[in-house]
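User: Please predict structures.

Assistant: First:
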Amino acid sequence: MTHTPDITRPPRELIDALKGIGAATVAGTLGHMGFRSPHMVGPVAQNHGKSIVGPALTLQFLPQRPDLFNEGEYADPETQLHRHVLYHAQEGDVVVVDARGDMSSGVFGDMMSTYFKGRGGAGIVIDGCMRDRPNVEKLDLPLWLRGWTPNYHVQTGIYPNAVNVPIACGGVTVIPGDIIVADDDGVVVLPVAMAPQVIEEAQKHAEWEVFSRIKLIEGAPLQRYYPLHPSAFDEYEAWRKSNPKS
């Protein structure tokens, strides 16, 4: 039996606190902390209107090499590592796959996706493709991919090499257990250790943005209200007191 490691999942309260914060806000907040590009380039939303926050289960693909990989070895399905990353899935987990940007290998299809959703998985992120689009779309499972293909996962030039190891996905390093924040803007990787500070800063930002948005739609000066100028802080605080639920 193939053995693959599980991940350490972040505290539930961190996940819950991040659910009201969008990928753009998380990316911008991390940017101010020195993370220049926590956003994956390549995987894009396949079913718009979805947003997820959850810990990363990782799957790494490598280029096929005949001395390291032979498809004949896959006669036993349990040797297929792309199955094993799904075995670890718990409610709210996100599978993140480094498929090397390959556009001709379908990492998962209908049945694998159905199993993952049945396990309570939150969503799938792949720097590459999936297959069985008509049936997968019926699952309404949040997906961020480069595209779709009719080919199966090892049909062309890559093969799964490791589960729950550090990977690069869309040009971003992903450590197993990192928090994935994804919506229509894209996918952002948030290190667990940075989450409390990101939550704190993002909540402050979100609060004054509500006020600024009200002022801007009224035609108020952009220079004063975005970003909120120090000279407008007293006005903002007065608005907060009169709108405590906003």
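Second:
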Amino acid sequence: MRQLMAPDDALAGGARDRILVLDVCSSSGLEDWSPDLQKAKVYERILLDLILGRLAPGGRLDEQSLAARYDAGLAGVRDALGRLALEGLVIRRARSGTTVAPLDLVELRQGYEARALIEPHCAGLAAKYASKAEAAAIRAAFDGGEDAARARDLPTLVAMDQRFHAAVARAGGNMALARILIPLQHKAARYWVFSFGAATEAELIADVQQHRDVADVIALGNIDGARLAMMRVLNIMPEAARPMLAG
């Protein structure tokens, strides 16, 4: 998904967010973190708040406050923060506690370069190896995406995007690549919020369609087509690919 910007009132917590968090939770792609585990649910709720900016960059994270905020135990919060620290989304230091990782443009560029190398390859692997159920899950990730774009519903669009990219990564069958790619996707999502306000409805809908195009060629087993379609999603336009991407 292109860069998106969080409206203040639209991000209020509640039952609606709880459903979205479960969607994002299923996108983690780490098989040792079942969405049904309490620690995974806490992780996913904190992750979504980090992506949406509810937990501000540079802000200090107090474990007791987080436990109260998410109605969770301290052990679950600590597990979640440990995983988020491994992903580079929070910073844990002895004696000084845990803070939200700052937004770093150098890190953004480096992460984008890594995704540009890895994610088209993963899309090709998905086209080669995805089961019918996995291909259907990729296609279903953006069900209702046009409605969310028209409503400028950022939390829903973020959840859809996370679910889509993780489903593609998992469907390729290479968990080593998935473990690299999914955290990169989580970190990139933090930057989307900054251009959401400037994006037109047509641009948001077109972005949803680009993701659908990836799903369609994966379902067809078109390896080269899946790579090129993912390049389009990532806005990668190598000269040799331009004629094919223009078609």
